[in-house]
Here is the input.
Amino acid sequence: MTSRLAAGMTRAIARHQRREILGFMRKAAHARSMAFRDHYSRIAEWYSSVPGDRVLELGCGPGRYVPLLHALGARVTAVDPYEFPLWSTLSELPGIDFRSGVRAEDLPFGAGTFDGICCLGALLYFDDPERALAEMSRVLVPGGRLLVRTVNRDNAVTRRTGAPLDPASRNLYTSDELTDLLTRAGFFVTTTYAYGFWPARFRGAWWFLVNGPIPIRLQETLSGLVPAEARVNVIAAASKGASA
Here is the structure.
């Protein structure tokens, strides 16, 4: 892939993400409907179990899940080491607070600040996952809920090629390994599942295709054709404490 083509695809992905996020922001009913889908980590099902409305999104990136959570009724604090252009627009939503320069291993919040924490794609980049989970537990209320989505270490592409989907990955887990990681951190895992299809060939082009041209319904259908243990992502919902 040429550098010009790669740059063009990156710009196209950014445009799609902008349309997607602004669409959720402007159409709450649509956002609530999509929040139940596998593609969006069934975040509506998870949020229904959160004991209050204060939610921390850890590693929020451009803010994809923020309008979904807002449409569900959450007050969202969204944090990331970096700042993204759409934050200023999303901040117009009431009850939304963005903070940059925040790393999971050192959260700038007091104990029991949040009723729920979701971390949907950032775990694989953490410097110290165990310390990050200890911090998440600290800032959660007793019985607070956690939702984690991360790349499956045993996905079909890595099985076939021996290479991670993202070369920048630091921490990869199978579903069982993710459950063990959360359990050792003091969480009780209530739900696990897997989602996502990725072809072994044309991997860079596929990132472009799933961020625009390929409809979500088709992506979900393709995911269903892959054995669960070989899908791209593993997702776990958990509660702080010994039982749900």
Notes: The domain at 3-240 is CATH 3.40.50.150 (Rossmann fold).
